[in-house]
Design a protein that fits this description.
The structure holds two protein chains of two kinds.
Chain A: H1 3-11, H2 16-34, H3 40-57, H4 66-89, H5 93-106, H6 112-130, H7 134-144, H8 150-156, H9 161-181
Helix pairs in contact in A: 1-2, 2-3, 2-4, 3-4, 7-9, 8-9
Chain B: H1 3-10, H2 15-21, E1 33-34, H3 54-59, E2 68-69, E3 72-73, E4 83-86, E5 89-96, E6 110-111, E7 121-125, E8 128-130, E9 139-141, E10 147-152, E11 159-165, E12 169-170, E13 172-178, E14 185-188, E15 191-194, E16 213-217, E17 220-222, E18 232-234, E19 246-250, E20 253-265, E21 268-277
The chains are: A mainly alpha, B mainly beta.
């Protein structure tokens, strides 16, 4: 089944949409989550959460690139889980909670200023990515969006690992320069 | 801003960019890779190198000779693929322009065996080398010093040639193509279709769809530009012969055309049909 047909099922509120999504993109989303989370059960829960999120946002959204759309959801959910795990592991569940309480005094979570800043940073990053040569952009996204190891990136693009590392180093420097110019550093 | 917020911001990357990054590049079979000539390269001592300083001298230290594929290093020194800026446009290194079979001399330097196509005129000299995207005309992005003369043809603005000298090349004509230039395209009914690309390789049909109608045979191949007339193609890969291939299309769907291809093996061959998509930007 093609993406447009799957999206149509979401719009029709037909639960077959979820089965088709899992069939077509389950392994892919598990790979995306698996690069950020380690425990298989965490990965599975993250993917299930992805389907739920997709169900909740389609409609009103009507993604034309369903694979990339799902990858973004999975990645964000995986990062949320990782952050929660890290906080718990610090053992100081209490210390982390205390910090959160103090943070609430400084700025409301998800407050307007923080949301505006986050949006502006996203625009800055988008502008940066748009100006990159396609190959450098591909390598950067494989590493920092998909969290793919350098060796895998090298294999994907038939490059040496040194060349991939050099490309990433070069692009990170460009990103730093870009963020400095935009006033973020 | 923290590293985490930056990392999350990357998570909002454009879906078109994410999709593009999913492509895979096939490494060409070993027999097509031109062999490296020597075990190491020697420093080229010349008065002008004194300007570059000690750290550049280190970069020029003897190293293994690179493997070449179509006259293009598999890995450029410094990990930077050269990009040249001319008349406000960026061009990427596309390989030595010659008949192949490049050999390095005893000192590990490749000389000659290349040529400049007709119609290209001298336009200027490479002015400087940068590790960043070039911001000025005749500036080149590279990982090591490169010098050379740039040649352009106003009738073919998508390609330039440079007579390059680096520490492993001397006076060789290198072809640079526009960053988004596509080879392996065919013009049909005024529109461009992609006949050949790494992404499409291996795809196709054994039988034509029943609604497909005959259009004609490819008449001509042009170089260094997009085809202008119907049933013309452009192609950089001399292994792929385009003239004479049959073209079919579905009159109700101009998003693809079908172009014949042949699979050959010992004792037999069969015709199959490449499904060639419309190039949206043309």
């Amino acid at each position: 089944m093609e993406d447009a047909q799957i999206v149509a099922l979401y719009w029709a509120r037909d639960e077959e949409a979820l089965r088709e999504t899992d069939r077509r993109y389950g392994p892919y989303c598990r790979t995306v989550a698996g690069r950020i989370l380690t425990a298989p059960e965490e990965v599975e829960e993250c993917v299930n959460d992805t389907w739920l999120r997709a169900w909740n946002v389609i409609p009103p959204q009507r993604p034309t690139r369903l694979r990339a759309f799902l990858a973004k959801i999975t990645r964000n959910l995986a990062l949320d889980r990782l952050k929660a795990q890290t906080r718990a592991k610090r053992g100081g569940g209490e210390a982390a909670l205390a910090l959160e309480e103090l943070a609430e005094c400084v700025a409301a979570p998800g407050g307007v200023e923080e949301e505006v800043q986050q949006r502006e940073l996203e625009l800055a990053v988008h502008g940066f990515l748009s100006g990159l040569p396609p190959r450098d952009r591909d390598i950067f996204l494989r590493r920092y969006f998909f969290v793919e190891p350098v060796g895998e990136i090298a294999g994907r693009y038939a490059m040496g690992e040194n060349a991939v590392s050099a490309a990433l180093s070069r692009t990170r420097k460009k990103l730093r320069t870009h963020l400095e110019r935009e006033g973020w550093l | 801003m923290t590293a985490e917020t930056l990392f999350r911001s990357i998570g909002t990357a454009d879906e078109e960019f994410l999709e593009h990054s999913e492509r895979r590049v096939r490494r060409r079979p070993p027999w097509r890779i031109l062999a490296a000539a020597a075990a190491c390269l020697c420093l080229i001592a010349a008065g002008s190198w004194a300007l570059w300083g000690e750290n550049i001298r280190e970069a020029l230290a003897p190293r293994r000779v690179m493997e070449l594929e179509y006259g293009c290093p598999i890995e450029f020194p410094g990990g930077i693929d050269p990009v040249l800026r001319v008349n406000g446009r960026l061009y990427r290194w596309a390989g030595l322009n010659g008949s192949g079979g490049y050999r390095a001399d005893e000192d590990g330097i490749i000389r000659g065996h290349t040529y400049l196509p007709e119609g290209f005129q001298e336009a200027g000299e490479i002015s400087s080398v940068t590790e960043e995207t070039p911001a000025e005309d005749f500036q080149i992005q590279a990982g090591t010093p490169i010098s050379g003369t740039v040649y352009v043809d106003l009738e073919a603005p998508l390609v330039v040639y440079v007579r390059v000298t680096t520490y492993w090349l001397e006076d060789c004509f290198v072809r640079f193509v526009g960053m988004e230039y596509r080879t392996g395209t065919v013009r049909i009914d005024g529109k461009l279709y992609q006949f050949f690309s790494e992404e499409l390789d291996g795809g196709g049909l054994k039988e034509l769809p029943p609604e497909a109608v005959y259009v004609g045979e490819i008449q001509k191949v042009v170089e260094d530009r997009y085809p202008v007339h119907d049933l013309e193609a452009n192609n950089d890969d001399w292994n792929i012969h385009m003239v004479g291939r049959q073209v079919y299309r579905d009159p109700t769907d101009d998003s693809v055309v079908y172009i014949s291809d042949e699979r050959v093996w010992r004792g037999g061959s069969e015709t199959w049909w490449r499904v060639c998509p419309l190039l949206e930007e043309h």
